[in-house]
Protein 1
Amino acid sequence: MNVEQNTVRGTVRELLDGIAVVEVEQGGCGRCHEKGGCGGQQLTQMFCSGPKRYRVVNDADVRVGDRVTIAVPAGSIRKTANLAYILPLTAAIVGALIGMPLAGDPGAMTGAVAGLVIAFLYVRHRAARRVDDPAFHPHIVSHSS
């Protein structure tokens, strides 16, 4: 199975028990304006300052100071952001809309909280299923000293 991947360049800054801490040159995948891009770089620049560091399995035997290229499956950042942000917001709104006709403002508040709790539990369940799936983790595709 050949999966399209987005790549970003970075420098290994630290090694921790088989994990390489990589400082990347830019936030996101760098394909914000291309098909499949999520716009993550603009969000990163707006809300985060300073260098971005990622933990990546050191299966390429890199050393501190090595330049590396990290790959993630195309669209995975967008899907994760939708799951973590859009789903809970939508669930809270739907919960409030269901609760409002049943019990007025208290029903709307209760429905919104219930929607958030349900969304949180669903996101946790989905994340737990993907934590051991290497297809969803960034990985080193090339390096140079």
Protein 2
Amino acid sequence: MRRTTLLWSVLSVAVVVGLFIIKHRVQDLEDQLHALNAEILADRDATQVLEAEWSYLNQPARLEALSRKLLGMKPPTADQTVTMEEFHLRMMLTDKNSTDALVLDQPSNSRIEPAQKSDHRVINKKLHVDRWAKPKITKIKNSE
């Protein structure tokens, strides 16, 4: 009977020590979980503050005022805007050394004025476009 009592005593002490160790590990993990949850809440609050600040800083009226004040920018005028065809024609007229030109059909109702008055090229319903511009033009045509 002594051996079984001794065996059960050792076994119960081992179980008590094991439960004690597991209990402290669980408490440590719970403390880490609470700390992580608090950190998540703090990060959410910081994110909300940053989103509000971003919204304020990106207001169009504020950006316009800053660009006028600090950069001296002005709103574009009507003569500063051009169509895509006019833009590409001006690019071709200024780049006379272009050898890789593609030919695209030009709409018959578009009005194209050359960028330089001295260069009088006659382009009969054809528009020369550099190779890099063709994918962009087709993307624009597809979006219309």
Protein 3
Amino acid sequence: MNKEEWISVSDQYIMGTYRRYPVVFTRGKGMKICDTEGREYLDFVAGIAVCSLGHAHPRVTEAIKNQADKLIHVSNLYHIEAQIEYAKLLMQNSVLDKVFFCNSGAEANEGAIKLAKKYGNDLSNGSKNETITMDGSFHGRTMATITATGQEKFQQGFNPLLAGFKYVPFNDLRLLGKTISEKTCAVMIEPVQAEGGIRVPDRDYFQQVRRLCNEKEVLLILDEVQVGMGRTGTLFAHEQEGIIPDIVTMAKAMGNGFPLGAVLAKDSIAAAFAPGSHASTFGGNPLAMAAAKATLETLLGENLLSNCRLMGGYFIDKLNDLKKKHSAIKEVRGRGLLIGVELDCEAAGVIKKCMDRGVLVASAGTQVLRFVPPLIVTAQDIDQIVAILDDILREGA
């Protein structure tokens, strides 16, 4: 089939939950991805911060093939060798103690909310069960996580939302302190707001939030679904804040494209989940664990975190140079290789023009370009996309 035929069949059988671009991808390698027409694109989306090692990474591919030959799935009613191996590796590289595996970021955040409620209710005879989240946040598409999300556009049409959530402005410690009450069990925050426009808080914000949560005896949940697994230049984004959270959620880049999520917690908090409290049929199955272990070993062993910091700084510098040339760029912000460029116009037109020139870029809100390339990105790749942006903005976005 040609591209138009593929798209026609897609429209016929797949629910229209995305405004998909008119392209059909079939294969990729490293920083490049190819469509059905044989055209190659430089990928600065990486499945929205998922394929951090690039496409078809040989180590991950080999791990999946080898595991598929042995055992794809077994119930969590039993101990699973590959799950135990990966859990040990992950937790030895974190500041937390226990992990629960699931299949996505929404599931991870749902699990974290449940864990915090269970912990709070157990301590208070059922009165400490509200969660505070941030305006502009994004935590997922389940009923609990869209309620936790501090953006009305994601909640429209799904009333009534769930009870037990309050919202405060991101990066506003004073209002957070005023909003915490005797009913609050947890504060849930993204270290960098990704879907909210790539918003980075003040440098001391998280240390103050940690102190406030300690004072009020409230759990601190960090949603690292998009910012974790090296995206900001350290394995966990909170490492750069100098704090120890109570619960951390992860997903996106954990399996380099293989669906996987996780909830990490301190021992004392994880204990609130007893047998029967929470579960996942597919969570942590052998195939997912093989992909995740190969991904983490590669991330830690091939200097990709240092490359993320180096290339992230280089990219931001180049974009700021571009900002000096083009008034259409209002602000450049980000951390590591999670970078946003706020425009004075709609981002969609620029994204389409980038695609026409063979580069994939995403958005984070209507006027923010989002750049989340694989962590293997080079200065040459960055120079190429900056030159393309320069041409587009010169022509008039």
